[in-house]
Protein 1
Amino acid sequence: MRPPFFPLLLAVMAMVPPAEVLWSAKAAEGTPLARGGSGNANAKSPAATEPGPHGHRLITVPGGEYTVGCRGHPTNPRRTVWLAAFWIADAETTNEQFAEFVAATGYKTDAERRGSAHIFRYGLPEWKWMDTPGACWRFPQGPDGPEAVKSLPQHPVTCISAADAEAYARWAGGRLPTQAEWETAARAGSAMNFPWGPDFDPKQANTWDGVTHGRSTKADGWEFTAPVRSFPPNAWGLYDVVGNVFEFVSDLPPGVEEKSDQPLTSARGGSWWCSARTCHAFNLLDNGTMAKHGSLPNQGFRMAFDPPAVSGGSKQG
Ligand SMILES: [Ca+2]
């Protein structure tokens, strides 16, 4: 039985210090947006990938009306949204890209300022992380693990908080996508639960191989994060919208209110850590909520950019 969504979050919040990591997600209990269909009326053809700032490859999403969510979903109800045109990165932001930001600014992440991040260890109960001194974006598996910049340069940056992701985005001249923007780009015109169809396919995304967190079989090739673009893209050319790392978005799910004593953030798409029993959010519908300054090894982000108001502007940075 999955834990209840917001009641659990509130109960946990009352017991933990502000810097503690919280995570709550709930799968859809209602009718999927569509099952077994062949796309929907949202289908549009965005422009080809273009070079953007700091190595980001950008996909143009045309402005217009889009349908997101599904009937009966507690935090992602089916609704029509209007979006202005925007650019979205084809891949999650990498350790190499984040290192460029840190080298240019001297930025210290939330985990570095605290001196620890919550990371995965075998043997932990489901849904549990271990607060580990020395863990941060540079050492996302802990200080005894690989150094991200040297060993994992093309893997998504992790153990960064949503606040850290926003700091990077401001420096890079962009922002995090909204819930609706993320889902529209991730759907790429599909009305189904996954970019490839109505049912989960473990060969299409980096998730946890198994129902629980017993030893990973690496059936999809990866125990933890995978280099970005390791799995097939969606119809618009976005990679890893499902699996690899949860991607922070800029707004909370519908119906989830900000807490003055505990800033919250939300993320989409599921991650390498997501097993069938843990989080279960590796799809196009579910949206989890966690502490805005929390740092986990399965949390990353994808950049969005606003087109210049006057055509002819350069995206090179
Ligand atoms: Ca995997």
Protein 2
Amino acid sequence: MDKKRYRRKHRPGTSRRDIRRAEKMLINILAGILVLLTIIFARNILLPLPDEGIIPIENVAAFAISPQTFADLKSLSNRNNVNFVEVLTIFSLSENFFPPGSIMPTKEELENEFFRNYRNIKRSHSQDQINTYKKILGTLLNEIESFPIAQEYMTSGENGYYFSDTFGAARTYGGDRKHEGTDIMDRKNARGRIPVVSMTNGVIRNIGWGELGGYNIGINSASGNYYYYAHFDSFAPGLQQGDTVEPGQLLGFMGDSGYGSEGTRGMFAVHLHVGIKVNSDITENGMFWINPYVFLRNIEGYRD
Ligand SMILES: [Zn+2]
């Protein structure tokens, strides 16, 4: 009887010692998991929290990144095989959307400081914030498919145009206000000469006269962004509210209409005013005018 029991006791897998060994192993595994969880938890607490700081809307609107830095970010994104829209977003967030007086880094500085630390810089911003601004910038870059001047006039010669960044410049007609767009000037200052085309796909929401904008057209893209073209000399024949338009489609001819009652012309030099109103809930009323300048330079291909 005793011998039998003794033998049974020592059968593999059933002895008390084996059970104790299994228990120990289980405890060790559980302890290991606990240590791991503690490390993960501590890391999350000790790492700096993502920057949830509020970006001033006037900075976002002015979007004062230089065309050169914009272009550098684009080429370096390609070289480093990272998504350009995300790179532009992270860079803009890191620079607090370029307050007045911001100094733009050289391409070398971008490569050595920004791109080398890209993962850490990205981690310092919340995913929510990244997504919000990535959507704004990505949508604009995606839907602006054409420069608003017909191809054959896209020259730096005397037949062409010129423009600079005048977003936020003072305007006095109709009360003190700030310029909420980019003016593309006719080098010949001749009304009715340069064909103006749509930058995007969209639907014409309004077409007609406005005291400030003269003969103007407002187009809604599918994203809900609003593209405003002002001071036409004349509209493309037959164009009316509700029409759908495509990038590159003729809208009318550049002029100098506005600043008075219907038909007023010649109060300023011949130019196209381009305004872009972004559809985003980062502002209370859900929309804000953004500076079209770098987007125009980008689609133009930095010709000048
Ligand atoms: Zn203007």
